Amino acid sequence: MLGISRQTDYAARVVLHLACLAPEAKVPIADIAKHRMLPLEFVRRIVGDLVRAGILATSRGSGGGVRLARPAAEISLGEVVHAMEGGVALNHCVSDRRVCPLAAACPVQSIWVEATHVLDSYLASVRFDALAQRSEAHQPAHLRVQAIGRVRGARGCAGPKGALA
Amino acid sequence: MIGISRQSDYAARLVLHLACLPAGTRVTIPEISRIRLLPAPYTRRIVADLVKAGILQTARGTGGGINLARPASAISLLDILEAVEGGVVLNACLEGGKPCVFSQGCRVQRAWGQATDLLQRHLATVTFDTLVDDSPEHQAAHLTTHQAGATEGHKASRSPSSVS
């Protein structure tokens, strides 16, 4: 199946979690893992990747934690995909035409390039400020799950009441 | 990296090969593997997936082989991905069966869904008749490569001059 990895799915949730908080809010990684029901070690690795990509910033010490490195309006879903997956390239001949000597004039290669562009441009247009806007339908889902506690098969996010989209 | 599998890449080349031949032309799997430089057992598996999806047809016996089950104009790149990869679904939360408990009103899920739709719609518009029509320059590239012999790292297709 053509799709994103589990890491990217989780990374988007981590960034969304921070985008839903007050600007500049800093939280411990363990908090995000707990609220979003993600394995702590996994979140640590993902945060490392997102920091390297300039999407998150971390600080140590008391009051330390992780926060968005820039406003949510300036972070796109595409950047998260790039940080986690290394990019979008529907076929290997898209990222490196040299892998195939026929690529220069191959009718299928140009289609993979176009489709890659369609996907990439869309993902670049999706900003986390828009994703973080509270949704009336989403909020009850969070609260419900929070009320029941850890749910089997829940790959999602439970947040403090009212604080999350 | 978000991308198609090697199988889909090969399947697209295989269907393109048949689409470039006169309608109804049947070729054997060893022939197509040789010409497109694909490992024959691999090609067989891909052919089986494409037959199950109604994209290719096989015939046994003398003069047997594989051919397109329908006109190239009725086969899209999306059909190939669905046959070989099971489809385009950017995130697991979009698949049926195991829905995410938070999916109701989740804006990220909606974004993955829209990206999936966009990609599906785009790939559905690309039919193999247009890929064939697009090929005069490709023909020249094939001929050049053909003359030079198999190039190292060449995972593509070496084909007779009749094939784009």
Overview of the molecule:
The complex is a heterodimer of chains A (165) and B (164). With 165 residues, chain A is mostly helical. Helix content of chain A is 50%, strand content 5%. Chain A folds into two domains: 6-75 and 127-162, Orthogonal Bundle (Arc Repressor Mutant, subunit A); 89-126, no CATH class. Chain A contains eight helices and two strands, in the order H-H-H-E-E-H-H-H-H-H. Chain A has a two-stranded antiparallel sheet. In chain A, a hairpin with a 5-residue loop joins strand 1 and strand 2 (65-68). With 164 residues, chain B is mainly alpha-helical. Chain B has a single domain, classed as Arc Repressor Mutant, subunit A (Orthogonal Bundle). Chain B has a two-stranded antiparallel ribbon with strand order 1-2. In chain B, helix 2 crosses helix 3. The longest helix of chain B has 19 residues, at 107-125. The radius of gyration of chain B is 18 Å and the shape is elongated. Chain B starts with 5 loop residues before the first helix and ends in a 16-residue tail after the last helix. The model of chain B is unreliable at 149-164 (pLDDT under 50). At the A-B interface, helix 1, helix 4, helix 5, helix 6 and helix 7 of A face helix 1, helix 4, helix 5 and helix 7 of B.
Strand order of the largest sheet of chain A: 1-2
* Low-confidence segments of chain A: 150-165
Sheet-strand content of chain A, in percent, reads: under 5%
Q: What is the strand content of chain B?
A: under 5%
* Helical run tally of chain A: 8
What is the helix/strand order of chain A?
Answer: HHHEEHHHHH
Number of strands of chain A: 2
Q: For the CA atoms, what is the radius of gyration of chain A?
A: 18 Å
N-to-C SSE series of chain B?
A: HHHEEHHHH
